[in-house]
Amino acid sequence: MATETTPEQPEAYTALLEDIERHATVKSASSVLSWDQQVMMPEEGTPARSKQLSTLSSLAHELLVDGEIGDHLAAVEDATLTAEQEAVVREIRRQYRRANCVPRELVEDISETTSEALGAWEEARENDDFATFAPYLETLVEVKREYAAHIDADADPYAVLFADYEPCLPLSQAESILDELRETLVSLIEEIRATETELAIDAFAGTYDTDTQEELSRDVLEMLGYEFDRGRLDVSTHPFTSGNQFDCRVTTRFDEEDPLGALTSTIHEFGHAYYTLGLPDEAFGSPLGDDRDLSVHESQSRLWENHVGRSEAFWELLLPKFQDAFPQADELTPRAAYEAANQVYDENFIRVEADELTYHLHIIVRFEIERELISGDLAVEAVPDRWNELYEEYLGITPPSDAVGCLQDIHWSHGSFGYFPTYTLGSVMAAQLYAAADREIEALPEKIRTGNFEPLGEWLRKNIHRHGARYETNELVERATGDSFSADAFTEYVTEKYSDLYDL
Ligand code: CO
């Protein structure tokens, strides 16, 4: 990309692309080191690895703000650019502005605070003692407010923090989608709990050899279209995906008593990887070869995890393979497997173990608490009570301890306020994208039932992946689906699916 000069391409634009490619390359090198740290690195490797990662991170920051990127951006200001070039400049300018207006001491301060906070959080969770973590959380709230003020002193600080993860969706839009979900889900879950309908929730009871689970996960990845010559499957404590269009790796985890957990995690991470691998090769290092942020990324993982992997058609396809691997499951029917994969829990306190419906209420609790913390309406010491109060209000349950309550997630110890909503926004977007694909691809469920994933994969490649960060989120969704991004398709999807499952 950077070396291709068309006659109308201004020199400063070419130089800008070259510089941003260097920046992106340093960042992608650190992501390989961080993958290695979580998957391969021997136990004692941490001291050197931390130095390697922090050096690369300052180097990336320097390449972005201290080099000539600022000059190039100024030089292309009045140049005549194509729409695509304008999009590239828009993306680089946004990154540059954010990085440039936060003083280096504050960046270092935040990074030191988060590394101390991480240890305190681990200890607090281990001992179920919120007080151990509270002072660190307080400092994190302070430094993140300060950070937000440097970027935009006039804006709602939470909106500024949210834009670190989701730069292209206004917070007000995210908020109205979450509000709508809360309405829909609280009453849908109440209805489900009031029915007599019993699902086959114990369909997968028993123990399942983890080596065989791993083979099955590999088969599923292959079947969905994962390119093993551009990726790998490994095991890590928390499943994740890392890489670029040439090399994008996934991890999963195995539990002898929970074969569904490994399968859904693997399919989720496949969705992330399939997106990254679908970014255009020739645009590596440019925003045109980069993903469109967290909500769109999560829409890709949730689409495969929920709309494909939790569908009845998929279980008709997968069950015979599952039974080949695990003959103990030979009595299982596709319907029972489908029901087990979609049960709504009466009492679950843990976000990452939640079902497709209650999951979003876990997120909404965190979203509301974060906003109150950042606005100053909620004191840090009041977080545990506020947490339990909201769990009671939205989910009708009270966590028995802070360890399975407000201390369960790592995000706040990283100072990541504003991250949680992107999980839910991704699911909502997934429903809208899947509905559009289903309209355009003839007999899509039948294709899934027969293991033909290509039409859906192609649809996503064409409508989402190949665009990189060319369009902002709302435009991307609207171009792909014909409608503006909203909660409508998600509401319709969950109402229809769960009314059928629970005979509502
Ligand atoms: Co994800």
Q: Which key phrases capture this entry?
A:
mainly alpha; binds cobalt (II) ion; 504 residues; three-stranded mixed sheet
3D structure, described in words:
- The protein is mainly α.
- 63% of the residues lie in helices and 3% in strands.
- A three-stranded mixed β-sheet has the order 1-3-2.
- A hairpin with a 2-residue loop joins strand 2 and strand 3.
- Helix 8 crosses helix 14 (358-375).
- It is globular, with a radius of gyration of 23 Å.
- The chain starts with 10 loop residues before the first helix and ends with a helix.
- Bound molecules: cobalt (II) ion.
- Cobalt (II) ion (CO) binds at residues 268, 272, 298, 301.
Reconstruct the topology from this structure.
Blueprint: H1 11-39, H2 46-65, H3 69-76, H4 83-100, H5 104-127, H6 130-151, H7 157-165, H8 171-194, H9 210-224, E1 233-235, E2 241-244, E3 247-252, H10 259-278, H11 293-308, H12 312-325, H13 334-341, H14 358-375, H15 383-395, H16 420-440, H17 444-449, H18 454-463, H19 473-481, H20 488-501
Parallel strand pairs: 1-3
Antiparallel strand pairs: 2-3
